[in-house]
Amino acid sequence: MISDMLKVNPSFIIVLSFFIIILTGAFLLTLPISSSIGSSTKFIDALFTANSATCVTGLVVLDTGVHFSLFGLVVIISLIQIGGLSYMTFSTFIFLLFRRKMFISEKLMMQEALNIYSTREVVSVVKKIFAIVFLVEGIGALILFLRWWPSLGLKKGLLYAVFHSVSAFCNAGFALPAGNVNLAPYCTDVVVNLVITSLIIIGGIGFIVISDILKNRRFSLHSKTVVFTTIFLIAVGTLLFYFFEQNNSSTLGSLTFSQKIMASYFHSVTPRTAGFNTLSIDKFYVQSLLLTILLMFIGASPGGTGGGIKTTTFSIILSTIWATLKGLKDTVIFERRIPFQTVRRSFVIAVLALLLVCSAVFALTFFEKDKTVLSLLFEVVSAFGTVGLSMGITPYLTTVGKIVIMLCMFIGRVGPLTLLLAFLTGQKEHKLEYPKEGISIG
Predict the structure, then answer these.
(1) How does it sit in the membrane (predicted)?
(2) Which tens digits make up the pLDDT trace of 172-189?
């Protein structure tokens, strides 16, 4: 059964590769050398950390910058990089380095992992991806290093710069400041805010869009949809967050107008799967929490380093609803008809995501009785969207609660549809066509 899946099912390979990487990372993080005090880390906490890093989420049960040694941090950042770009991308890059020819089965797996249109594009896309990754992360790390060197020193400044550049580009949300405060110490720092958000956006829009931008060619429908939706969500999120929180003395209230706008912009960008925060999430008003949950659920874009149902899925669903309300036959975006299979796939992804979120929250209410439903909903959506934002309950989850959140992170990273397809190999489409009959709805 498994051998058959390995031969014919790319989705199963993707799921299996993530699972193996997580277990390997968890084993390394349990070693005494990974701890700053030289003691072994509990397996459940090491597994949670490895899962969160590989799934580029950022939810933590340990104080990352305090608990882990340099070796442990290298393991975490390696998991983030591999998880952000996927194991399949890395393995293909190794093949190219050693000039090994890829078989068609391997190209099919890469096509599935990268969400690209044709197997013929695989090699060129992988080369572009690594060129973009090294360039963008390198520039981000350099700017952050120049900012942090004077205050943190050479060694710590370099560690902070590289770690946060990779974490931001891969939309991971892991941060090193002590006390699990994430980037709160840099709430009013213009350089840190702009560099981190820029890395998040570039990593989140996807490599297909980045390639279109670099080539300065006519945008495909995919790129147009991603760019428009991303700008729209960031702009609306910024305005709404400022409107909701401007008088909250625990968040924006004590900041100047320009600082309020910057913090609002930061917290409009970061819920789209990045997970960094410069303000205390648990101090947000309910309206801001609900806005953040929505942004986390939507997530990044296909082919990027983030999770969620994706910006394109969100756009197709809204466009389909609009077309239905207007009595139109087809879903149209930028004067182009969207294929029915794509529309159906979008609704399936959204419904599966909603079912996962509802099921996880329902399960957690049995084991996390001391926590509010809103905080559990926030935690689950953050895990599914591979975001990493939290209302502060992650370190206090029960063992069962941690397992539920780990499953949400894993499913959110590989995708609920990919996970189902991984175990539905061999299913054949029936040729039989049944008669039509209507059902009353609405």
Answers:
(1) Multi-pass membrane protein
(2) 889 999 888 889 999 999
CA gap 368, 371 in Å, rounded: 6
How long a stretch of residues is the chain? 442
- Domain-embedded: residue 134: yes
Q: Give the range of the structural domain holding residue 103, as residue numbers without chain letter.
A: 2-422
Instruction: Report d(CA 207, CA 225) in Å as an integer.
Output: 14
Q: Is 116 left (phi over 0), alpha (psi -120 to 50) or beta?
A: beta
Lookup result for tokens 């924006």: 252
CA end-to-end distance (rounded Å), the chain: 43
Q: What is the DSSP string of 144-159?
A: HHHHHHHHH-HHHHHH
The tens digit of pLDDT for each residue in 287-337 reads: 999 999 999 999 888 877 778 899 999 999 999 999 999 988 899 998 899
| String of DSSP letters for 224-247 | HHHHHHHHHHHHHHHHHHHHHHTT
Which alpha helices (DSSP H) does 63-153 contain, by range?
A: 64-67, 70-85, 87-97, 104-114, 122-152
436 found inside a domain: no
The number of folded domains in the chain is 1
155, part of any domain: yes
What is the reported pTM?
0.87
C-alpha 64/C-alpha 324 separation (Å) is 48
Q: What is the mean pLDDT of residues 339-359?
A: 92
Examine residue 435 and state whether it is found in any structural domain, yes or no: no
* Alpha carbon distance 199, 212 (integer Å): 17
